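Hi X.,

You mentioned you wanted examples for the new student's onboarding notes, showing what a folding record looks like when two proteins sit in one file. Here is a clean example. The first protein comes first, with its sequence line followed by its structure tokens.
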Amino acid sequence: MLVLVTGREARGDGLDSMRAVAWSIRNRVSRPSWWGRSWIEVITKKWQYSSINGLEADPNLLIYPVPGAAVWNDAISAAEEAYSGEGTDPTGGAVSYYDRSLDDFPPLWAKSGQFAKTVDIGRLHFFRLVLPN
């Protein structure tokens, strides 16, 4: 499931973004809270990853990423790295992110003061939690 959410959330944005998404999920698992205490709980938490449990079913997501395609291999690589903890977290401890298409109307959580922006990778803005959860 980590491979699917990694590939879908960073769809069309490349390996660096996939790696960052996977690490942000790892950061949530490493910091159990309302979003879950395990990989599966974090990934399937309602309202968190629209590519897995969004409001509207996107038929394109049923086939994305396509096994065997280069993007599938990138998603596997990014997910394996984050799951094993190999390498360095490219997000600076981020647990949340949003797409730059929302820049004019960012999510409320991003303006709440509970999160600090850490980095932009591809089209995604990443944030770490600054207040205890």
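Then the second protein repeats the pattern, sequence line and then tokens:
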Amino acid sequence: MDFRLSRSVILALALAGGVPVSHAQTTDSPSWAQLTPAQREILQPLEKDWDQIEPERRARWLAMTQKYPTFTKERQERIQHRMQSWATLSPQQRAEVRELYKQIQKLPPEKRREVMQKWSEYDQFPEALKEALRDARGKRP
């Protein structure tokens, strides 16, 4: 899996997971058709999968839509890009990303920062170097 994509998706999961959700919110899980036009516009990359998303995750995304208008344009674009990246993943890739996210969340904060720093550094590499690293990784015994 592409590390850049993984990073984006994991950060999207962190964003979605970082919004507190009350029990009342998790029991009221509207279908895509029941969302407001503003919510549908913000969550558009998730439209195809919305009705299969677990109620707790839907509630987190809906909570994010309430704050979305207050975010900077850059943050809004980053969220949109991450939702689009998520939408392109296969179910197997999504499961892998969720598992990786869980593993990262179990790390001590210092180690988590170290992992995120390494991902940031990796993002700065030229594409040719990233490709060479992926190839080398795939050739390991």
